[in-house]
Amino acid sequence: MSVNLLFSVNHVRMTDSSQYSLDTSKVRIYILCYDEKSRKQAEKSFAACDWAEILEMPSTKYLENWMYSTWFPENRSKWEHFDFVGTLSWKALNKISMPNFSKIQTQMKNKKADMFAFYPHSMRKQPNALLTQARANHPLFKDIWVAWLQQLGHDESASTQPGTPAFFGNYWMATPQWLNKYIDFFQKAQHVLDTYEPIQEKLWSNSLYTSSMTVECQQKIFNRPYYPYHCFLCERLPCFFFYNEGAYIVFP
Questions:
Q1: CATH number of the domain at 22-251, out of 3.90.320, 3.90.550, 3.40.630, 3.40.30?
Q2: Would you list the domain boundaries of the chain?
Q3: pLDDT at 189
């Protein structure tokens, strides 16, 4: 697999929004929230950022991945004119430091990057980081992953490539051209998850994720008192897609 990866581990905390100013004619990052409480937190964290737009989503079993199945394809006129488009969660700053946007701008000027991944796994450069981390947290992940991607035309040697980078949370942005490619791929992948009978029992089983969400909320969203596997598979799908397609991936 021929792929371009650029790694940088320099991050800065958000203290002065002027440090993170991006040309809004070039970049749009949607800050995803679900309700009034999460919207208020998003506004507190990101309202001063000219590259950010806060967007409230419905709660579905696919969580933030609803963006790729529904919002992005239905709202192309709102984002296709940007140079880069992406997403972060309302609680992103609880998990990551904000990326170094001066380095992002350098990469944008060099016109090399196809996508920026904001939430890399600490062991992302080690072989099999994606599957190792996923299986450690979600025991049935590999079984579902391999069967799922086989239905999309990728055999096990492709879906388990050792060099596949690990980044999470749908914390990334890409050029509109690459985002459109990913949307097409994601919609096909989602159809398989929703319809391919041999994986349904494992797919809907308990992923063993420990969440701060109440059991009542989990029941309402997933129709189960726990997280099934859907969102954990889908948040890792960009890792496979962009790597397998040879995109130039930057970790700012």
A1: 3.90.550
A2: 22-251
A3: 98
Does the model's pTM come out above 0.70?
yes
CB 146 within 8 A of CB 220: no
User: Is pLDDT at 205 greater than 90 in this prediction?
Assistant: yes
What is the band of 47 on the pLDDT scale with cuts at 50, 70, 90?
A: confident
Report the 3 state secondary structure along the chain.
Answer: CCCEEEECCCEECCCCHHHHCCCCCCEEEEEEECCHHHHHHHHHHHCCCCCEEEEECCCCCCHHHHHHHHHHHHCHHHCCCCCEEEEEECCHHHCCCEECHHHHHHHHHHCCCCEEECCECCCCCCCCHHHHHHHHHCCCHHHHHHHHHHCCCCCHHHHCCCCCCCECCCCEEECHHHHHHHHHHHHHHHHHHHHCHHHHHHHCCCCCCCCCCCHHHHHHHHCCCCCCCHHHHHHHHHHHHHHHCCCEEEEC
Is pLDDT at 217 greater than 50 in this prediction? Answer: yes
The answer to whether 108 and 197 have CB atoms below 8 angstroms apart is: no
Report the DSSP beta bridge partners of residue 55.
Answer: 32
Longest dimension (CA), the chain: 51
Who contacts 162 (Cβ-Cβ below 8 Å, separation ≥6)?
Answer: 127, 128
Structure tokens at 213: 């969400």
pLDDT tens track for 140-171 = 999 999 999 999 999 999 999 998 998 988 99
